[in-house]
Amino acid sequence: MKATKLFFAVFYLVFPLFLYGQNTNSQWYQVFNKTVTKNGKWLYFVKYYENGKQEGVLQNGSTLKMMVFENPNNVYLDDKVFILRNNDNTVFIRNLKKQEELQFQNISDFTYDPDTGNTILTTPGKDISIVDNTGSIRYKSTAIEKTVIAKGNLWIRKKNVISLLNLKNLKEKIITDNFQIWTVLKETVSPEEKLIKLLLKKDSIFLTRFYDFDGHLQLEKNLPSVIANYPIYNFASSHLTASKQPFKEQLKNIDTLEVWSSQDMGLKPKIMKYKAQAYTDLILDLNTGKQYDNPYIFGATRSSLIFGNNVILDFYDLENDDFMEEITPPTFRLRDIKSGKTIFSVDRIDGQYFHVAKKFNQLFYFKNKDWWMYDYDKRKAVNLTVDLGTNFYQFNRLNEKVTIAISRLFLSKDNKKVFLTDENDIWKYDLTTNKAIRLTHSVDKHISYRILNNSFNEPVQRLAGTKSSEIDENFLLLDISKDDGSAQALAVYRDQKIDIIEALNANTISQLVYSENAVTYVTENGNEPYVLKLYNFNSKKKSTVYLSNKEIFEPSLFPRTKVHFWKGKDEESNYCSVVLPPDYNTSKKYPVIVRIYENEAKGYKDFVYPSYYNQNGFNRSLFAMNGYIILLPRIIYKQNEPGQSALSGIETAISKMASIYNIDLNRIGIIGHSFGGFEVNYLVSHSNIFKAAISGASISDITASYFSMNQNSLRPDIYRYTDQSFRFTGSFYDIKDVYYETNPIFHADKINTPLLLWAGKEDYHVNWNQSVSMFIALQSLKKDSKLLLFPKEVHVLLKKENQKEATIRFIQWFDYYLKDYKRPPWFN
User: Fold this and answer.
1) Which of 1, 117, 302, 474 has the most C-beta neighbours closer than 10 Å?
2) What pLDDT is stored for residue 365 in this prediction?
3) Which InterPro entries does this one have (predicted)?
4) Domain membership flag for residue 791
5) Which of 68, 31, 27 is nearest to 48 (CA)?
6) Spatial separation of the C-alpha atoms in residues 220 and 378, rounded to whole Å
7) What is the pLDDT of residue 366?
8) 600 is in which domain, residue-wise?
9) 601: in domain
């Protein structure tokens, strides 16, 4: 291992040559914001180039000077030090105070201890070295199996010994030797309890040991040999849960007769999948030695130990599945661990949000139209929002039969308050006083506040998607957005005041990274590449720290994005975005491509650089630079009229934009993917305004989709029509005429537009055979159509070569039909 020390004085002399000597001017790149220091002085981001190259950038937020690192991997950054490991296994340690840099070769991983300033370096051969902030190697050891920093100490496990190394004085304490006779089955570090927990096995002997962070043995317990039958282990406070999946192997390669029953809760494959994932548990109280069985309960799909390990939480995900809702509303039940009896249950809750408090025996769930809290100690459920006089629920699309929470619930760090989101505002509810106050006050019913803070806690054990989301009650980052997606703002709530960071405008604001005193974020819009900005919470000053792609972005040579608003007959506001060719000439007529999918108009807030590598084969900037005007409409939907709503919206958008721009109404193409692909299929079967069309990964036969099992979800696709984009008010048997009228394949005989269909041959989100069905219909009718099937691709194209292939062929398709270009060879 070799260390090299460099000084900033030298670095800044050579850096400009390094930066500008690279071939970056021919490559567009995206900016990924990663981290910012507590004082806001330093920030780090990564530039992802289109050719796959990556550069890590450490930047001074005040001087804006940058340091670039090729092929970055993991990093650490605080006010004093920056550490980066690249993909060549070189580690750079930069002292931000002294402006010195160290380099170490052949390092596969590193860990930094901010309390002592030591860095633990690990080689691919599992040797470790500890380097202090001067670059001196203070400690070495070989053949390490695991290391964990624990309150100023380093827990080191080798094959034959466990030791604790004091990271301040580097004195090592042997915890146990002759360790090779033991097998470590489970090793858990609990910062909250300040304990390191081990489950050990020797022959038929099972032993658990708890050590504190100073290496003192706190608990040692021999365990019953029965846990040998349980291969999965988890520590939960003073309990050990030993688990097994009794049906996993039994059902793995089952090849026998299947019996499906209409009385089943869900389709048989889904039931069997849940059963294969089911657990049975042996729960051991390590203090008392008592054992509790948690047997498999038919229908229970997820189980967790909560409330001081006194209660088992069971979820029944299939109990209420009638296939009509996108997110199945589960039932949950609480069982006493000792008696096994159910002590509380709730039917049909919102399956998206469920929160278990860490510090109190409370859980939170959303049912019907309200947030509820269940207090285990009081054995009482309380409706938190019923008396607040506002709505905390929303409908999924236009489905008024089902209500879901507007946003997740957040807990304060002391778990004594919760933050709730209504249609427009944020509320703080005090669980001690049972009083709520509104923190924000939207003055426009179309403008809403949403909390952006990160969640700090891990999911409850074995309960996927369930988090106890703790945030600082005196610090809220807030998104402020218009409900039509046309504008966005950013604000911070601190010290009972709201400060606007970014005013409401036509930018996308994303990639927020924050520390105690600063936040960095990225803004962009259709006419401006990604801009990295820094805001200091104390000084309330905002600065632009990095303008991306300035080496290549020339506004006069780039497509111009514009947006136009209007009000319809019912006074409802709508808008459409337009992307113009760089050399747009008002005296020339231009062919048009309409890109459709619900609300494409909001895309004017996004920067899109020209590229042949697109997951859906379409790049609006590339096509605009090829001489097309691109229309991005917003569709306002009516119940039971997804196709007709799209047609009406498209016709209005074309008419409005044709009155402003030189659109050739005889040369209009349309392209859509997924639900947008369905809309294309419908539009060309109900209108002749399009001269060419492209439909990707689309639904063409609604009834075939409705009555089929989705291979990904193992559910019927019924919910797509009753609770998703199609916005139907009933089942197929309730409104057969609506299903018939909307089904594109039933009207394929009316299609006169040349239609290019495409799909990935492993797409089971929208089954790729849907595209095949439409092609067969058109081929049987001798209609002009082509079908592209990409092997080993899913709902979008993930392989670079296929992305480029699709983009080129899509350009050729439109060029031939809209520009009268030469017929491409693949047409034949």
Assistant:
1) 302
2) 97
3) AB_hydrolase_fold (IPR029058), Peptidase_S9_cat (IPR001375)
4) yes
5) 31
6) 34
7) 98
8) 555-827
9) yes
